[in-house]
Amino acid sequence: EDVLNDTRFERAMQFYFVYLRLDWLWSLNLFALILLNFLEKPLWCQKYAPHTCDQRDLYFLGQLPYLSKTESLIYEALTLVILVLDIFYPLSYEGLNLFWKNSMNKLKVLLLFILACDILVFMLSSGPFRVAPYIRVVFLIMTIRELRMCAVTLVGIVGTYINVLALSLLFLLFASWLAYVTFEDTPQGKTIFTSYGTTLYQMFVLF
């Protein structure tokens, strides 16, 4: 009862309810982040003429209205500001110690820093690669619980998948060696299975 009557608790609850009321803004911002992946001009367009991405007859780019670099940066800066508020607002009701105990918050802050650096580099110079489109997807996965659980499940089966892949590769190597030895002195061996490397390729295509 003393905790509930504490003024700090009441103030924290007020900030928490405000955060919940702004949930529509956080969700809309995530949608805007993903939408930007489809609206920003591909990096390869900047290597050619300025109007390359406008030539729909020469390049299969769909009918999406691509944003210019300036428009894309303004769009991205606005979403970044909202994302900063979304990530750091819980400090107002959780406190500094509780906020940094959460590993998810630490990961979000790290990704936010990388995203900001990527935007800054893109603003100063146009490189051949950006990590921002991938980080936006990661933010979406981290925010939606169902997607986060799916990602955890996929990471969990990576070990099993690697084991199956290794066994399949071992079987392919053995089957290729067996086929090469079996058909070594036959017409097929002189025309198709001429070497172990060729046999390995043929068996890979067969499988």
From TrEMBL:
Keyword vocabulary terms for this entry: Calcium, Calcium channel, Calcium transport, Ion channel, Ion transport, Membrane, Repeat, Transmembrane, Transmembrane helix, Transport
* Main location class: membrane
Q: How does it sit in the membrane?
A: Multi-pass membrane protein
Task: Pull one GO CC term from this UniProt entry.
Answer: membrane
Segments traversing the membrane: 16-39, 73-89, 109-129, 150-180
| Domain Ion transport stretches | 73-206
Q: Which InterPro entries match?
A: Ion_trans_dom, TPC1_plant
Recorded GO terms, molecular function? Answer: voltage-gated calcium channel activity
Subcellular location(s) of the protein: Membrane
- On the tree of life, the source organism's domain of life is Eukaryota
Q: Name one Pfam family in it.
A: Ion_trans
This protein is called Putative two pore calcium channel
